[in-house]
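In this supplementary section we document a worked example of the pipeline. Step one takes a protein sequence of length 659 as its only input; no multiple sequence alignment statistics are reported here. Step two produces a three-dimensional model, which step three serialises into structure tokens for compact storage. The input and output of this example are shown verbatim.
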Amino acid sequence: MLLSATPPAGPRPAQETRLYEEATRHRGLTPPRTHPLASITWLGPAASNPALAYRVGGDPAHLAESRRWIEAAVRLPHWGKAHMPDHDLDAGWLLHHLALTYKWIGDDLPDGVRALLRYKLLLQGRRMYEYAVASEGSWWSSSYWQNHNWICYAGLATAGYVLGKQEWTERAKDNLATVLDLMPEDGSHAEGVVYWRYGVPFLAIHLDLLKEAEGIDWWDRGGFMSRTFRYRLHQTAPGFAFNVDHGDCHDRRSGHSAGLYYRLGAQYGIPEAQWMGDLASGELLWKEAAESGVRPGILPEAYLEYLWYDPSVQAARPTETRAFFPDLGLLAARTGWEDDATLVSFKASPGGGHRAWETAAKHRAERGWETLNQGHHHPDSGSFVLVSQGAFLAVDEGYSNRKRAAHHNLLLVDGQGYADEDRYHVYRDIPFERQARQRDVLVSPDCGWAHATAEIAAMYDPALGVRRLDRTLVFTPSGRLVLLDLAEADEAREWTFLLQTDRPAEPLPDGGRLIRAGEATARVRQFAPADGRTGCEVTEVVANPTSSTPELSLTRTLHTLRSTTTRSTEGLFLTAIDPATGPDASQVPCTQGQGVTFGTETVLLSPVARRIRTGGVSADAAAVLLTSDGAPYVVAATRLELDGTVLLDVPEPYTGRVG
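The serialised model returned by step three reads:
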């Protein structure tokens, strides 16, 4: 498709209109005569989109427009200025786009322009190739789980196929094979949604090139590509415009790639991907383009939308409301997809996810290579994001350069977050055993409940002697949250619960707090500890989200609700967050375990001892989840007796519906 500029058969009027609009968008701009301080990635699509428009419609004005930007790019002595000239993202983007431009309209360019473009592609491709060889085992050349790797190799591959440079395409192909074999099979991505939409399209580009140029079909190799749309889907906020911002996210608007949605929808027959592509390239397009902090952004993808859209794929609005991605330890649950629905996203995993963490350790031991560069993965295991009523209520900090657990909805021990944090790459050079993980996961689409327990004790400084720090999160069918945090240490410690919001949480008469975001609200009630100190403070997060512009500095202000225990070897927080209308949360009296009820929904928890004893309920289980009009659900249960009737008695722990 890409090399031949031949899309799937069928009409594509909306995509053609998008292409023509994008082909003319820069006509009022004067191309730079010297390299600007900022990134020049946008120069590539400024040439390729009008080149494709000329191929499609034949208007010589598009040919002239493409030529303007070709000449601007080829006269720059280097591609990239502030960060790794010729060897990183600027060069990767321009190699891809200008090689396609050469392929599409090279025969229609004046001889001198065509020759200069070919020479520049050969020069920049050689620089990129030589750097990839020389840096193998260190930076992006072998950072298999990182967007720089995918973009730079896709650019090298595009130029290699167009110019007939087999050594470039073979090296890029070998890397692609490794990437596909090592990416998580569940489709998740530790860099977060923004870098998913920035980097994963280049994996799709490379796969497209490989199939067209060599007849090799690797679309199903490894499983990541076939499942990654589902990951992106479940990191979409209700209403579809915004995204959950785990990992480095410049903002909550920079998550859509209509072109990639179309390609995944066509390749794997995913109606929801086709539907999301239509939405992203239609209703959401201009707001995303205007408000996104990522450049070049969504508009330059017009060429991909045109070439990857397959009109034969049926579109269908998403309906699935629960998902768990084990590699990243990511639980996502929602009450629906409407604008006012409620969503929680809760995660815990080693740096980069389980597969990357384990494989990178083998590379380090066996080859002496550092292949895991996860500077975009945050110290956020055990943290969660809550969206409801069209607003973000419990929030993440977005992009940060000095990453800290204190910027997330997490827990501190004696005021300290994760060991070796407060730097960009918090997972570099830390012990292999310093891993977080999820256990006791329940995600049943037919029940509305979701449950998981994050084990995060290993992430704290060993000198603190933290033996246990487990967070259990329960999402009820109506969208309420119950959190149970259990902590143990060798010595008495202060344990601090953090909740991040966009506005200060307001005190309520019953001792709870009200979170407010626009018209949206949620009530926070903490039943334990009874003697904790609670207050709200301002937390400022400073970041520069682009190495291409070193002087850029952005500050985001969080409002942090803090609850701190008295010093003790054990800590316990029992918290309810209720964005729904209805009865206030109340604590359930338990002789063993902990419980919260919202009237029609009751959550009983015992994630460690697994013994729950209360009025009417006797269970050997990590959790018992009850509604007033449905069957109970249990987590890791061997026995459940409800109102004197034994409903479950099994030798091995069972998770799911009872009865």
